[in-house]
Amino acid sequence: MLTSTDFRGLLNQRFFKNFFPVPATSPLSLGQPTPGFALTDVTNGDRTVKLTDYKDKQPVILAFTRIFTEKQYCPFCFPHIKALNENYEQFTERGIELLMITSTDLQQSKTVVKDLNLKMPLLSDPTCRVFQAYQVGQALGAPLPAQFVIDKSGILRYKHLFSFLDHNANVETLLSQCCFLSAE
């Protein structure tokens, strides 16, 4: 696990905008369409990825993650990021795209991709607009983690919001949702 006491870059505009706690209250309901977005995929050459790119093609898992800076990870999210990355092929083999969304800026995100050897797309949302559209909540300088499973029609089929008792949906839970979606 990366451990560092380098806090450079932590106190930025994003930190102060996300400092005060806002609970995870996403009103998105199962069976309803999800908000669209366009973000930069840092893993794959800074290409723009739109959620609509997958419509009528394949289901998508949005994995919102909490990274403070390129060297400061949420202790709940770091193992989750690693587990998703290690199992990325299991998702793609089932025809599911796994998109990880972070609030770190492009440069910080590029360092994360390199340091963690990420295979899955890492989408940069430094303005936190997509985090806010999905109402995942925030606390202490960064948005909270959450996971959303969206079918190929753009309909929400599963959501997991952060709580102190259940931080992130585990790989097995997400894969079980993939099996359900792959049958459609």
Task: Describe the protein in words.
This protein has a 7-stranded mixed beta sheet. The protein has 184 residues and is an alpha+beta fold. α4 links the parallel β6 and β7. The chain is globular. The chain has one domain: Glutaredoxin, CATH 3.40.30. It comes from Desertifilum tharense IPPAS B-1220. This is Alkyl hydroperoxide reductase. Pfam families: AhpC-TSA (PF00578).
State Rg.
15 Å
Strand order of the largest sheet: 2-1-7-6-3-10-11
Name the CATH architecture: 3-Layer(aba) Sandwich
Q: What level of helicity do the residues show?
A: 25-40%
Q: How many DSSP H or I helices?
A: 6
* Proportion of residues in extended strands: 15-25%
Report low-confidence residues grouped into runs of 5 or more: 3-7
**Biggest beta sheet attributes:** 7 strands, mixed
CATH superfamily: Glutaredoxin
Mean pLDDT: 84
Protein name: Alkyl hydroperoxide reductase
Keywords: Antioxidant, Oxidoreductase, Peroxidase, Redox-active center
InterPro entries: AhpC/TSA, Thioredoxin-like_sf, Thioredoxin_domain, Tpx_Peroxidase_subfamily
Pfam families: AhpC-TSA
